[in-house]
Amino acid sequence: MRTCLLTLLWAFLSLYVNAMSITRKTMLEMGEMGGEEDRDGAKGGKLLKRFKRGWMWNQFFLQEEYTGSDKQYIGKLQSDMDKGDGTLKYILTGDGAGDIFTIDENNGDLHANKRLDREEKAFYSLRATVVNKNTGLKLEPETEFIVKLHDINDNEPKFGKELYTASVPERSNKGTSVTQVTATDADDSMYGNSAKLRYSISQGHPYFSVDPSTGIIRTALGPGEMDREKREHYQVVIEAKDMAGQRGGLTGTTTVNITLTDVNDNPPRFSQSIYQLSVPESIITGTPVGRITAVDKDLGKNAEMYYNIVSGDGLDMFNIITDKDSQEGIITVLKPLDYEKTRSYTLEIQVQNTQTLDTRFLGYLPTKDMATVRIGIEDVDEPPLFERASYVIEVKEDAAMGTAVGSVRAMDPDGYNSPVRYSIDRRTDLDRLFNVHSGNGSIFIIRPLDREEAAWHNISVIATEFNKPLQTSRVPVYIRLLDVNDNAPTFASFYETFVCEKTKAGQKIQTVSAVDVDDPVGGHKFFFSLAMEGAYRGNFTVKDNGDNTAGVLTRRSSYSQLHKSVYLVPVVITDGDFPIQSSTETLTVRVCTCDREGNMELCNAEAQTSSAGLSTGALVAILLCVIILLMIIVLFAALKRQKKKEPLIISKEDVRDNVVSYNDEGGGEEDTQAFDIGALRNPEAIEDSKQRRDIIPSDTLYPPIRRTAIPSRDNEDVRDFINQRVQDNDSNPTAPPYDSLATYAYEGTSSVAESLSSLGSASSEGDQDYNYLSDWGPRFRKLADMYGAEDSDRES
């Protein structure tokens, strides 16, 4: 009741304030208008009477969503000039005038014709005026007024989403904010409580709560209750109610799916405390032996763990790593296993999280877990085992054949201690320089060795059990040949020099050095000297420089090309190792003419020929080129001779019959284009200007040929016709160079059988006498008997 009284009081006050404002505005406009009229009257010399106008308003507000059947009455507009005599007319303009709003032009009553929604449009601006019905003149200027819609609670609250998704860490404290939901109400928030909302939770107790004013959702339970491992997903329904949550208000709801995110509050735990594994002793190092599993209730990184071996007699024999995908512990072999030495191992393995563990809720529970792993070793029949993984043996290169250079030893690792037989893999000793004793593994030489050919020999020795030949193993043996001074030093290169005819005694003409394929421990040391038996000791001498080089010096001040042009100086080179090795090398010295500075100008003829002539390799190359060129010429001539053919017609005068193939097939009896057969039957009908029918005629190339009449005789007519055609073709320069095949039915005058064609034959087939066939010989006698018999039968 109190609310209704307050609403009515507020409405009356609003009407009063609006009426005062409009009346004041109208009076102000009338005052301005009257001032203008006074001024205009003063200007025109007439005094105009000022009329006072006033409006009386009954209603400024309209309730939205009107459901009545009649028009909704808004209010009444009345002018002071309205005397009630019906001479005035009220006119309404503005928003919705004539459609939504209408006015009674006689009395000024204002009505709404349609149902209005404040949420679509909250107010309408209208203008009203009064005119004289008779003259149509405005009696008052337009005045603007506003019609406002009263709001009613006709819209329920609506959330921005139908479904919200949120998350909060598990073990959160009570009151931790999760998310915020917001609803809106389309009703007027300035009028009443239609848009005042209150939030509440209708589903999700007792885990969550919502702030009634802000819509913030918070946790409602403590850390001990919000455990993801017990429950991970929650569905909360939030309700928003207008009218400040009072009874009768409209409500809207939304759903919030809340997920508890994981925190590291659970340590890993082994699924069992003791694991039993077995592995063969022949397993390769690094191979997995088995897997052990620990379980962590957490997720993601919080469930990552690592394993380590903390104790046990297999601490140095095994290792454990973590499988990143399955988080299992993989035990691998770290060192080779031997069943004969140790038949089982025990490992103590520990597991723990890689991330920091939240221990607030563990109490006295340990953060790590332990498990025992027992690994049994299985016996395997193994091949022989060498004492070493590889052997290195040294022997001098001059060792005699049959000398033992070393030995290898292998034994059966199994308990049977089977005897072993040794052999060399010949694929590693292709030259068969070594052999091995099959019983004791001694390696000895069977061929001479030379370090200068190969300093190292790498062979493989195979050990095989006698009782089980398939059980074999091998070991590499590296044999190094030690150097022995068995090679004499030589010149480092071929030396050849010259000496001027005019020189000085003691002049150095060449420096020589030496090399040695041997490799002494202390390095090379060479000594140079002139050969004792040399005939040139009075001409040259050798000076050892002490650094493995020597200088060749002159002992005379003049030399003569005419006396001797070339000197061969023998130089003895001796090494400093034991046993001493030496060799004699020859230095070639040529006598030349030199200028004052000692530069060579001219040597002896032998030297010039040697320097200017071509080398043997160059001469051989030139000779090969000449031979190849001659072969190409001969081949070209032979090919050209093979391609040469006989000419088609050797001479124009030679017109003998020649069979020429043009790959052109004739048309047979149907081919009437090459020759007019009618001419044979009637030679007199030939036209003088008749052209060939097998080529394109051309009047410009050759003129018509005059022909003489051919006498009509049997064979003579045809012969003359053919001769005429031959003459025409011979004299025609455009005729094709080939014979056109045509049938002329003419066999020649010397033919006994004359013509065989029926075209020019005067007798029929029945009048023929075939007895003359008997005169042609035995080959035609059978044919004469056949046709002669037919004639006799016909006569009888």
From TrEMBL:
The keyword Glycosyltransferase does not apply. It is a single-pass type I membrane protein. Residues 752-765 have a biased composition (Low complexity). GO terms for biological process: adherens junction organization; calcium-dependent cell-cell adhesion via plasma membrane cell adhesion molecules; cell migration; cell morphogenesis; cell-cell adhesion mediated by cadherin; cell-cell junction assembly; homophilic cell adhesion via plasma membrane adhesion molecules; morphogenesis of an epithelium. One of its GO terms (molecular function) is cadherin binding. It holds the Pfam family Cadherin. Residues 79-159, 160-270, 271-386, 387-491, 491-602 form the Cadherin domain. Residues 1-19 form the signal peptide. The chain crosses the membrane at residues 618-639. InterPro entries: Cadherin, Cadherin-like_dom, Cadherin-like_sf, Cadherin_CS, Cadherin_Y-type_LIR, Catenin-bd_sf. The keyword DNA repair does not apply. It is found in: Cell membrane. GO terms for cellular component: adherens junction; catenin complex. PANTHER family: CADHERIN 6, CADHERIN-23. Cadherins are calcium-dependent cell adhesion proteins. They preferentially interact with themselves in a homophilic manner in connecting cells; cadherins may thus contribute to the sorting of heterogeneous cell types. This is Cadherin-10.
